[in-house]
């Protein structure tokens, strides 16, 4: 039966890690998509030729969800039955999932707010586009840091 | 009165034709930009997923010395790199391709 290193509830933490990785990343990505989507919808009424440029915040918000997906797939691939899955591994996977999940949530919020204001501003002053892209990249990198930490934890 | 009506109607017909022409050219422009955006969006969504699983199976097949953990990590890193490559391509196209389309407008 399960001993103290491999308790029956060990995989619970791993499962929660995989779930929280994708849940929180998707929350952030959904907020980013919705918020910048309202900006695009308001802007496109007057400047429909800028659609291609203004989709970028939505794409970047989608990438946040892909980070969460990658970590969730990695953790789900390492899950096993309690006798082969130590409690330590469960904690590590929970930490990895939370790292990428909450980083993704934060990055998604940032992308949503910046995307909304940036897209509306780009319609009036096209030179704002470069600045918007730079700010979006810096927001995106927050999610990437979470992914790096999650993968580093996963290798432990 | 009748003459005036005739003139008005011919003018309306001409403006309607022009409107239709403009509408058609707008539609063609919208369709071409939709094609580009759709292509890049599907590239960004599917390329990392395909890269992840392809890299995983290929690396597993070719280098058996790698452990399962290392294979997973390399394929995840490869997927993220492919994702950023596709995103960079899209931003490049949006920045430089967008300039051309506004010039032709």
TrEMBL record, chain A:
<keyword id="KW-0472">Membrane</keyword>
<feature type="transmembrane region" description="Helical">
    <location>
        <begin position="128"/>
        <end position="154"/>
    </location>
</feature>
<keyword id="KW-0926">Vacuole</keyword>
<dbReference type="InterPro" id="IPR002379">
    <property type="entry name" value="ATPase_proteolipid_c-like_dom"/>
</dbReference>
<feature type="domain" description="V-ATPase proteolipid subunit C-like">
    <location>
        <begin position="94"/>
        <end position="153"/>
    </location>
</feature>
<feature type="transmembrane region" description="Helical">
    <location>
        <begin position="55"/>
        <end position="79"/>
    </location>
</feature>
<dbReference type="Pfam" id="PF00137">
    <property type="entry name" value="ATP-synt_C"/>
</dbReference>
<comment type="function">
    <text>Proton-conducting pore forming of the V0 complex of vacuolar(H+)-ATPase (V-ATPase), a multisubunit enzyme composed of a peripheral complex (V1) that hydrolyzes ATP and a membrane integral complex (V0) that translocates protons. V-ATPase is responsible for acidifying and maintaining the pH of intracellular compartments and in some cell types, is targeted to the plasma membrane, where it is responsible for acidifying the extracellular environment.</text>
</comment>
<feature type="domain" description="V-ATPase proteolipid subunit C-like">
    <location>
        <begin position="16"/>
        <end position="75"/>
    </location>
</feature>
<keyword id="KW-1133">Transmembrane helix</keyword>
<dbReference type="GO" id="GO:0007035">
    <property type="term" value="P:vacuolar acidification"/>
</dbReference>
<dbReference type="InterPro" id="IPR000245">
    <property type="entry name" value="ATPase_proteolipid_csu"/>
</dbReference>
<feature type="transmembrane region" description="Helical">
    <location>
        <begin position="91"/>
        <end position="116"/>
    </location>
</feature>
<keyword id="KW-0813">Transport</keyword>
<comment type="similarity">
    <text>Belongs to the V-ATPase proteolipid subunit family.</text>
</comment>
<protein>
    <recommendedName>
        <fullName>V-type proton ATPase proteolipid subunit</fullName>
    </recommendedName>
</protein>
<dbReference type="GO" id="GO:0033179">
    <property type="term" value="C:proton-transporting V-type ATPase, V0 domain"/>
</dbReference>
<keyword id="KW-0812">Transmembrane</keyword>
<dbReference type="GO" id="GO:0005774">
    <property type="term" value="C:vacuolar membrane"/>
</dbReference>
<dbReference type="GO" id="GO:0046961">
    <property type="term" value="F:proton-transporting ATPase activity, rotational mechanism"/>
</dbReference>
<dbReference type="InterPro" id="IPR035921">
    <property type="entry name" value="F/V-ATP_Csub_sf"/>
</dbReference>
<keyword id="KW-0375">Hydrogen ion transport</keyword>
From TrEMBL, chain B:
<feature type="transmembrane region" description="Helical">
    <location>
        <begin position="37"/>
        <end position="60"/>
    </location>
</feature>
<protein>
    <submittedName>
        <fullName>Vacuolar ATPase assembly integral membrane protein VMA21 homolog</fullName>
    </submittedName>
</protein>
<dbReference type="InterPro" id="IPR019013">
    <property type="entry name" value="Vma21"/>
</dbReference>
<dbReference type="Pfam" id="PF09446">
    <property type="entry name" value="VMA21"/>
</dbReference>
<keyword id="KW-0968">Cytoplasmic vesicle</keyword>
<keyword id="KW-1133">Transmembrane helix</keyword>
<feature type="region of interest" description="Disordered">
    <location>
        <begin position="1"/>
        <end position="28"/>
    </location>
</feature>
<feature type="transmembrane region" description="Helical">
    <location>
        <begin position="72"/>
        <end position="92"/>
    </location>
</feature>
<dbReference type="GO" id="GO:0070072">
    <property type="term" value="P:vacuolar proton-transporting V-type ATPase complex assembly"/>
</dbReference>
<dbReference type="GO" id="GO:0031410">
    <property type="term" value="C:cytoplasmic vesicle"/>
</dbReference>
<feature type="compositionally biased region" description="Polar residues">
    <location>
        <begin position="1"/>
        <end position="17"/>
    </location>
</feature>
<keyword id="KW-0472">Membrane</keyword>
<keyword id="KW-0812">Transmembrane</keyword>
<keyword id="KW-0256">Endoplasmic reticulum</keyword>
């Amino acid at each position: 039966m399960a001993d103290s290193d491999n308790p029956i509830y060990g995989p619970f933490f791993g499962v929660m890690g995989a779930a929280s990785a994708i849940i929180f990343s998707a929350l952030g990505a959904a907020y980013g998509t919705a918020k910048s989507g309202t900006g695009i919808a308001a802007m496109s009424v007057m400047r429909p030729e800028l659609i291609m440029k203004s989709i970028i915040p939505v794409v970047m918000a989608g990438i946040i969800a892909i980070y969460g997906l990658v970590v969730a797939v990695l953790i789900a691939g390492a899950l096993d039955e309690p006798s082969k899955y130590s409690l330590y591994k469960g904690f590590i996977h929970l930490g990895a999932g939370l790292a990428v999940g909450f980083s993704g949530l934060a990055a998604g919020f940032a992308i949503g707010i910046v995307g909304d204001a940036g897209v509306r501003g780009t319609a009036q002053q096209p030179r704002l586009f470069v600045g918007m892209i730079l700010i979006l990249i810096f927001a995106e990198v927050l999610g990437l840091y979470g992914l790096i930490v999650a993968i580093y934890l996963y290798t432990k | 009165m009748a003459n005036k009506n005739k003139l008005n109607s011919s003018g309306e017909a001409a403006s309607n034709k022009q409107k239709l022409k403009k509408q058609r050219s707008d539609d063609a422009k919208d369709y071409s930009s939709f094609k580009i955006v759709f292509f890049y969006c599907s590239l960004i969504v599917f390329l990392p997923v395909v890269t992840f699983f392809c890299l995983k199976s290929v690396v597993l097949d070719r280098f058996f010395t790698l452990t399962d953990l290392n294979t997973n990590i390399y394929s995840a890193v490869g997927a993220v790199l492919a994702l950023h490559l596709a995103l960079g391509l899209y931003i490049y196209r949006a920045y430089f391709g967008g300039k051309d389309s506004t010039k032709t407008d």
